[in-house]
Amino acid sequence: MGSVKNIALIGYGVVGRGVAELLEKNAGVIEKRAGGQVRLKYILTARPRAGDVRQELITQNADDIFNDGEISIIAECVNDLEAAYAFCKRALVGGRHYVTSNKNLIATYGPELTELAYRSNVSLMFEASVAGGVPIMRPLYKCLSANRVNGIAGIVNGTTNYILTQMKREGQSFGDALKSAQELGYAETDPSADVQGFDACRKLAILVSVAFGSYVSYEDIATEGITEVTSSDITLAEQLGYSIKLIAMGRLAQGGRIYARVSPLLIPHENMLSMVEGVFNAVNLSTDTAGDLLFYGRGAGAEPTASAVVGDVIDIAAGGRYNDSVWRKGNGSLLPVEENICSLFVRAELSEREKLGKAFSGGVLAEVGGELGFITPEGIESETREKIRASQIKTRSIWRVKE
Ligand SMILES: NC(=O)c1ccc[n+]([C@@H]2O[C@H](COP(=O)([O-])OP(=O)(O)OC[C@H]3O[C@@H](n4cnc5c(N)ncnc54)[C@H](OP(=O)(O)O)[C@@H]3O)[C@@H](O)[C@H]2O)c1
User: Fold this and answer.
1) Residue 58's pLDDT is what?
2) What is the CA radius of gyration of the chain?
3) What separation in Å is there between the alpha carbon of 78 and the centre of ligand 1?
4) From the candidate CATH numbers 3.30.70.1170, 3.40.50.720, 3.40.50.10260, 1.20.1070.10, the one assigned to the domain spanning 2-133+304-328
5) Which CATH architecture is the domain 338-401 placed in?
6) Which of 42, 54, 78 is the best mutation target for the ligand 1 pocket, counting ligand atoms within 8 Å of the beta carbon and taking the most?
7) For a disulfide at 315, which of 114, 197, 320, 349, Cβ 3.0-4.6 Å?
8) In the predicted model, what is the mean pLDDT of the chain?
């Protein structure tokens, strides 16, 4: 077999521990695929770990790693953005390959770090940062690199998908479904990053940057979470043949611009994304040559996420490289979201039926429990909203429908 690859792990929480375990559990296949033994030499943690089974590898001194000339690959799974940024910079400047599961790191500092990786002729890989165990980054930049990607639509946050599934299946309110997610450990005590869509937004920024070949900052992506979705919205949408999902979507729009948005969206039942339930993730890619592809699986958890991290490590150990120029080509131009063309779902009292009928010819209607759900014909979103306002239709909620 080939030479030994010494690696260091930074972060030893849910994902980091999963990485250490996977390197041991599948050492044989990993060695074959990497072309040499992948040996975990250090684990850097913030706090000491007395009595840990890997005690002899654990250190709190980053210099142990950075001063060791044998370490060529660093896998980082920390939960602190600025700490990860400092580790990554130090690694890349020092000519070490870097693998991270940290979506914040890539969404925030992607262009700068990829530039550094390029200058140092090393790789910066982040398969685990989007959709955890679901391989999506490598298919995008490698397997599908002969394609033009026209669109992405993904369920990339398991917590919100679990909450929406509970609301649909059990008729629970948002608050009750969130509570049950917290009890099961699917949602954090402070759930805002998930339920307000910020987590999905960072993942979408990474996806669209790679898919469309120019950097899109997460700060520029219109983001709406699921806190205002009600079980009545879900029931009426189901009657009309749709499920409500938190969708991270991006597509090429008029004039080479990119339309990118995270928001609740009505997905027709015949679209496979509507069948993705519970904590599962799925990403649909529409390409010009391979057609539509759906990637489905576990978006979080120790083992699925470790699978993605270790996959990157093996790829690098076997000679694979990634420091793609898309990150350095300047910013992509985003379509103002109000120019988007779509249908809107409107929930209102039954008494609004006549006004809706007058304002829109050809819409679709369902009635449940004294309320109606109405789907407008497709149009420019801002114009449809203006029509609803001008017709003085008293709406209880308005959500977009997937085109
Ligand atoms: N959990 C998932 O399913 C999942 C899925 C995909 C991506 N991710 C991403 O993966 C990363 C890690 O997530 P996690 O769930 O494993 O988090 P976690 O369980 O909270 O573990 C974080 C680890 O980072 C370590 N750490 C923090 N600051 C450090 C520093 N300055 N120096 C050394 N170590 C430091 C902590 O060390 P101490 O324990 O010593 O404090 C801890 O071991 C995050 O960026 C997360 O977004 C997680």
Assistant:
1) 98
2) 23
3) 3
4) 3.40.50.720
5) 2-Layer Sandwich (3.30)
6) 78
7) 320
8) 95
Q: Is 402 among the residues known to form the active site? A: no
**The one-letter amino acid at 387:** K
Tokens 């990607």 sit on residue: 149
Write the pLDDT tens digit of every residue in 225-246. 999 999 999 999 999 999 999 9
Q: Using CA of residue 11, residue 15, residue 19, residue 24, what is the dihedral sign?
A: positive
Structure-token pair, residue 23:
């390197």
CB atoms closer than 10 angstroms to residue 382: 13
What mean pLDDT do residues 98-121 have?
95
Q: Which helix (H) or strand (E) holds 268?
A: strand 258-268
Nearest to 162 by CA among 237, 226, 222, 235: 226
Pick the atom of ligand 1 nearest to 49's CA.
40
User: Choosing from 89, 203, 245, 402, which is the catalytic residue?
Assistant: 203
CATH number assigned to the domain covering 140-297: 3.30.360.10
Q: How many CB atoms lie within 10 A of CB 196?
A: 17
Q: Which two tokens stand for residue 391?
A: 């017709």
Judge contact between 350 and 371, C-beta under 8 A.
Answer: yes
Whether residue 309 has its Cβ less than 6 Å from ligand 1: no
| pLDDT score of 392 | 97
Question: Are 155 and 163 a contacting pair, CB within 8 Å?
Answer: no
Output the CA 373–ligand 1 centroid distance in Å. Answer: 43
- Rounded to whole angstroms, the Cα distance separating 105 from 341 reads 32
Please give the Cα distance from 76 to 328 (Å, whole number).
23
Q: Where are the domains of the chain?
A: 2-133+304-328, 140-297, 338-401
Alpha-carbon gap, residue 99 to 94, rounded angstroms: 14
In contact, 60 and 46? CB cutoff 8 Å: yes
Which tokens go with 380? 């420019």
Distance CA 308, CA 19 (A): 9
**378-383 contacts: CB < 8 A, separation 24 or more?**
378/341, 378/342, 378/343, 378/403, 379/341, 379/342, 379/343, 380/338, 380/339, 380/340, 380/341, 381/337, 381/338, 381/339, 381/340, 381/341, 381/342, 381/344, 382/338, 382/339
